[in-house]
Write a structure and sequence with these properties.
Shape: globular
Strand order of the largest sheet: 2-1-8-9-11-10-5-4-3
Number of domains: 1
Radius of gyration: 16 Å
Number of strands: 11
């Protein structure tokens, strides 16, 4: 699946760009429903409540399509004395989530195509990282997405919905370091009302991670799941 399907839009170029990222990522990271009866694990549905602070302002892209930015600069210690650990930028190369049996290597870069659509991993056995955003461990919300399934069976994030608070997530990086995260929560949101500002909003000075795939019921008419599953995590070391 080389291109993803657009789901809705938002007013304003910045909000629209962020919506393209999240809705396209969540909306497209799925192939056809499994032919076997089992369905992916699902977390409880969540009410999408926007944060009280505005989402970070995204800079204009150098290409005709506006892209979400890498987040604001790291705040000064005078305004927020406890940020937690922050790492220097370095792209991810592999991902381990022991509690749900995820161990994938060769994380691919995800980008927007000329039509402003986010490309999904072409390999169902690999996860993808939105390369225009923060790297995992860097200040801001890094995003890693993967398919939930394919016609032949489960994909990388098939059990993402079974992830629970306190679970460990390790992202191994190109510079040889490992960004270790702890899951804060996992929720399921309707694609029709995806909480863009919540997912891409102010991280309060922390380095955070978002893991995204599809979930909920499968709509045979559209060939897509109706919800998104999002895991929120923060850097611990």
């Amino acid at each position: 699946m080389a291109h993803l399907t657009r789901f809705g839009d938002r007013r304003g170029s910045i909000a629209a760009a962020v919506t393209v990222l999240l809705l396209l990522l969540g909306g497209g990271l799925v192939a056809k429903a499994l032919t076997r009866p089992e369905a992916p694990a699902q977390p409880p549905a969540a009410e999408a409540v926007a944060p009280t602070t505005a989402p970070p302002v995204a800079p204009q892209a150098t290409t005709p399509t506006t892209r979400p930015g890498a987040g604001p600069a790291k705040p000064s210690s005078a305004s927020s004395p406890d940020f937690g650990p922050i790492m220097e930028p370095s792209p991810p190369v592999s991902l381990d989530i022991p509690s749900i049996g995820v161990g994938t290597k060769g994380i691919v870069d995800l980008a927007l195509d000329k039509d402003g659509k986010l490309q999904a991993p072409t390999d169902f056995a690999k996860a993808g990282w939105y390369a225009a955003g923060p790297t995992p461990g860097e200040f801001g919300p890094a995003v890693i997405g993967a398919h939930v399934d394919s016609k032949s069976g489960p994909a990388v994030f098939y059990r993402l919905g079974a992830l629970r608070k306190g679970a460990q997530v390790s992202v191994h990086r190109k510079d040889g370091s490992t960004a270790r995260f702890v899951v804060d929560r996992v929720a399921r949101y309707s694609k029709a009302d995806f909480p863009t500002a919540m997912v891409y909003g102010d991280t309060k000075g922390r380095a955070e991670l978002r893991l995204i795939t599809c979930g909920g019921a499968f709509d045979h008419a559209t060939g897509h799941y109706v919800d998104n599953i999002v895991a929120f995590a923060h850097l611990t070391s």
